[in-house]
Amino acid sequence: SRQPAKTLWYDRPRYVYLEFCVEDSTDVKVVIEDQRLVFSCKNADGAEFYNEINLYARVNSKDSREKRSDRSITCFMRKWNEKVAWPRITKENIKPAWLSVDFDNWRDWEGDEEVERAMVEQYAEV
């Protein structure tokens, strides 16, 4: 029996970020398409997680990647139209119970591009 992972998301000028909160994940699979993301994994107890998100707008799947840590799996997807704010991450205007905005990382965009570039470079080195 699969269940959706608790998911946080936030918006940046060039990328949108999704964090799937699963500790000690194994068998992580992330498929990023132009308008859709599919995520699955297991946790230490063998529970299966599965999330499918039809994205609000198009992303560049070639310039999108994920990074796994002990606590979560973070995906960042390059927006097709940069500097266009996403009011939500889902195409449908309904918020699933498992999805929340990551307010800690949600900031105004003013002068934010340097910060974002540094974050992406940091991820890319991993």
UniProtKB/TrEMBL annotation:
GO terms for cellular component: cytosol; nucleus. One of its GO terms (biological process) is protein folding. It comes from the Eukaryota. PROSITE patterns: CS (PS51203). InterPro entries: CS_dom, HSP20-like_chaperone, p23-like. Signal peptide: none annotated. GO terms for molecular function: Hsp90 protein binding; protein-folding chaperone binding. Transmembrane segments: none annotated. Residues 2-90 form the CS domain. Belongs to the p23/wos2 family. This is Prostaglandin E synthase 3. It comes from Eudyptes sclateri (Erect-crested penguin).
